[in-house]
Amino acid sequence: MMSFDFQQNHFQLFGLAQTFALDAGQLDQQFRTLQTQVHPDKSAHLSDAEQRMAMQQSTRVNEAYQALRNPLKRARYLLTLQGVDTQEETNTAMPIDFLMAQMERREAVAEAQQAKDADKLDALQAEMRRETRALEHVLADKIDSEKNYVAAAELVRKLRFMEKLAEEIHSAYDAIDS
Amino acid sequence: MALLQISEPGLSTAPHQHRLAVGIDLGTTNSLVATVRNGISIVLNDENGRAMLPSVTRYAADGGVSVGEAAQAAQSEDPVNTIVSVKRFMGRGLQDIGDISRLPYRFVDADGMLQLRTVAGVKSPVEVSAEILKVMRARAEAALGGELVGAVITVPAYFDDAQRQATKDAAKLAGLSVLRLLNEPTAAAIAYGLDNAAEGVYAVYDLGGGTFDISILRLSRGVFEVLAANGDSALGGDDFDQRIHCWLLEKNDLSALSPQDTRLLLTHARAAKEQLTDHTETRITAVLSSGELIDNELTREEFQEITRNLVQRTLQPMRRALRDAGLEVDEIKGVVMVGGATRMPQVQHAVGEFFGQMPLTNLDPDKVVALGAAIQANLLAGNRGSDDWLLLDVIPLSLGIETMGGLSEKIIPRNSTIPTARAQEFTTFKDGQTAMSVHVVQGERELVSDCRSLAKFELRGIPAMVAGSARIRVTYQVDADGLLNVSAREMSNGIEAAITVKPSYGLSDAEITRMLQDSTQHAQDDMLARALREQQTEAQQLLEAVQQALVQDSDLLNETEKTRILAAMDALSGVLQKTDHHAIKRALEALNFATTEFAQRRMDQSVQRALGGRKLSDLES
After folding, report:
1. Which long-range contacts (CB under 8 A, 24 or more apart) does B251-255 make?
2. Which of B126, B175, B278, B614 counts the most CB atoms within 10 A of its CB?
């Protein structure tokens, strides 16, 4: 089995540059290449010790992949590597217009759920995705070019709001279904 | 044994380079076993050429166990001791089973998993399933002529931890080494993907006897990735039988029936359901134990009407799986159908309508899971190179921990690629607290009471500190079979304590040991399998020895003698691959008898050669 360095960070593991902007196709491909080498299925016929080692390595690759594939998690991880706390639980200071917009969107989701209006949910979801992508775009600038990690942390907190909104839309769809 | 000494056993028969491995589809209604032979996955049939073994186990008062057709035949006369659809009880408590009054069994509510009281004693669903697996194993070992390296056993993707653990325990009990538990839809995709060399995103719609699964998979460059899995572990083809059964009760103004009559009507209901796949109407005729005649005509239209909401119930998990995968319906390249119940026209129609395309049905929906499992088993046994495909599976349900207020905090979200692990830190709630209770739950709901409880354990020996200063790290590790291990460790002050738990729904090692001991008392099936293997080996050796002798010394025989020997050889070859060891034994003896004189002459000849032309009889006198 190949040598495996558990000390490498997620980006090093996949041989990727340590940036927020990321080639998702390349990440996917590297992930598959690594799993092809370390997945427990490759050692199912070998000793218990080898199987355990395979499980740990494969788990490590999955963990790194999950952390990099999702933009919010990737930003959080990059900031952690820079020693910056995103203060998602403690820092609730947020521009008032952003908060107002969020409240309006949540109310709209609740209303759409009430009215069992799937089309409305589709529209809200599309808007949420647009907004999320816009925030991610700014985030890439702040982290990769400007190296302004304080501003980046605030964007992460905003993205966390968007993620919660996505979860609400998701459960609204479920509620309409059942 | 007239000719055995001529050949050298072990040299003539080529040893198996190939490691024997099988895939087993342990189904609710039927079970199948398949293997890869000469690069092709095939289902192994029984001696009567049947691929499907009814998943039915019957216990007799003398402790004897029958499985399959024989057990199924006794279903109506002895419903209490004839366990059908045991898969529904695997890893399940009594409270998990819907309407138990409709089932003819005597349930025992045991800690963790329910049990069944039979004339042969109380049986766990694990033991009942193990009986089915033993038959599958014997069939495979007889057909392949050797010990199995291991097996891949399939489970519904929606099986939770307890159900998976129970399945693995059953395999262990049946003496099988489990290479991997494989999700059924994934197995189906392997069978299809390899046959068709398909690339793209596929949906697998699996409506089995007792469970419904929907999986979204991406196949690309040799990697199978399960993007999302959803389903309903209490919905299947059996429910369609139940609907017809209820319809019959209603039509005939019947109320509570005896277990025998219930079973009788269910059997007729199933037959009617199957009839309606190819016919637009069918007649159900049965005589109840009271002498009352049931005679009703059921049209396909009416059948579709009374089962409409069952078909509808499969649509919601489909929508959820698509959303979890972040995909739209039109991104699905193909839909694979699995399970006998997908033969029903209304099911195919609903699926076709939902996905906007006709589902794929070119592989037998009853066999496709076993075929895929065999391919994976062959790979895991190490029979293939490293350039093969890889399967990346996910867990279908979130794993969480109980926190303050009876809420579930999700540690590992559903659809995480496995193997996976996650650690989370917790702290103490009171000053001087030295113990902490860890409650492991599975499910999507917020309240712990709405989730499935998997395990509870206590971490003791936490050093007394003020509230909130201890750091307890709880780690969840899910292995490639989707099975969970949880450990907790106190991190502060460098003091560590760790505990590893098995889910409470699984069986303890002591229970497994007891069952293994129990099972040796009924090891009849295993002995039969061994007898068969021995006879097959002996027969093979004899055939080769005679063949060799004929090549060397056929001049010692006249034409009649030669014909007789060849006929006996043909007869033995004919029964060699069958599973009746008595038949092999008879043919073996017949060939031995037919060659006795030949052997005698050959012996004489070699002695004559050695002694310079004198006959053996001359020496004796």
Report:
1. B251/B296, B252/B292, B252/B294, B252/B296
2. B126
Rounded CA-CA distance B50/B68 in Å is: 11
Residue A58 to residue B316, Cβ atoms within 8 A: no
Give me the total of CB pairs closer than 8 Å, taking one residue from chain A and one from chain B.
67
Q: Residue B377 and residue B182: Cα distance in Å, rounded?
A: 10
Residue type (1 letter), A143 = I
Length reported for chain A: 178
Contacting B with CB below 8 Å, chain A residues are 32, 35-36, 39-42, 44-45, 55, 58-59, 62-63, 65-66, 170, 173-174, 177-178
**In Å, how far is A104's CA from the nearest CA of chain B?**
24
- Domains in chain A, please, with CATH? 10-69 (1.10.287.110), 96-177 (1.20.1280.20)
Any idea which residues of B carry the catalytic annotation? 25, 87, 184, 206
What is the C-alpha separation between B372 and B45, in angstroms, rounded?
16
pLDDT digits (tens, 9 = 90+) for B64-77: 899 999 999 888 88
Query: How do residues B32-41 score in pLDDT, each as one tens digit?
Result: 999 998 888 9
Helix, strand, or coil (residue B222): coil
Q: Burial level of A13, CB count in 10 A (0-12/13-18/19+)?
A: buried
- Per CB-CB distance under 8 Å, the chain A contacts of B417 are 62, 65-66
Q: Is residue B477 within 8 angstroms of chain A, CB to CB?
A: yes
ipTM greater than cut 0.90? no
Distances (CA, A) of B60 to B54, B103, B170: 18, 19, 20
Q: Which position has the token pair 């199978």?
A: B224
The verdict on B221 touching A (C-beta cutoff 8 Å) is: yes
CB contact under 8 A, A41 and B381: no
Tell me the nearest-neighbour CA distance from A58 into chain B, angstroms: 6
Burial class (CB within 10 angstroms; exposed 0-12, middle 13-18, buried 19+) of B133: buried
Pairwise CA distance, residues A171 & B12, whole Å: 67
Contact assignment for B390 to A45 by CB distance below 8 Å: no
User: In angstroms, rounded to a whole number, what is the distance separating the alpha carbons of residues B227 and B502?
Assistant: 27
Lowest mean pLDDT among A158-172, B188-202, B373-387: B188-202
Distance to chain B for A146, nearest Cα, Å = 32
Tokens of B570: 């043909």
Positions of E strands within B291-367: 293-299, 334-338
Assess B18–A contact: CB distance below 8 Å, yes or no.
Answer: no
